[in-house]
Design goal:
Blueprint lengths: L1 H20 L4 H39 L3 H4 L2 H14 L2
Helix pairs in contact: 1-2, 2-4
Keywords: Chaperone, Cytoplasm, Cytoskeleton, Microtubule
Pfam families: TBCA
Subcellular location: Cytoplasm, Cytoskeleton
Length: 89
């Protein structure tokens, strides 16, 4: 999701630059800048939600270690793999 917002912000920035070069109406440029600002504001929020989800998953996996049958389940292994993939990026 974060990558989508980053890409959308990049495309929106290019759109604003293109409108400015074309001499578009100032109102149109202003509105497109607002859209760009909205995209840029979503990036930190998305990052924060991802960080919170990672923390929650880490805590949950730690709590599963107390129960070996659950802690070694396929679901727990998959969750650890996903977590490793997210934290290595």
């Amino acid at each position: 999701e974060e990558e989508t917002y980053v890409q959308e912000a990049k495309e929106q920035e290019e759109r604003v630059e293109r409108l400015q070069k074309q001499g578009a109406d100032e109102w149109d440029v202003k509105k497109q800048r607002e859209v760009l600002r909205d995209c840029e504001q979503m990036i930190p929020d998305c990052k924060k939600r991802l960080d919170n989800a990672v923390s929650d998953l880490e805590a949950f996996l730690v709590s599963l270690r107390a129960d070996a049958s659950v802690g070694e389940s396929q679901e727990a292994k998959t969750a650890r793999e996903v977590l490793d993939g997210v934290t290595s990026n």
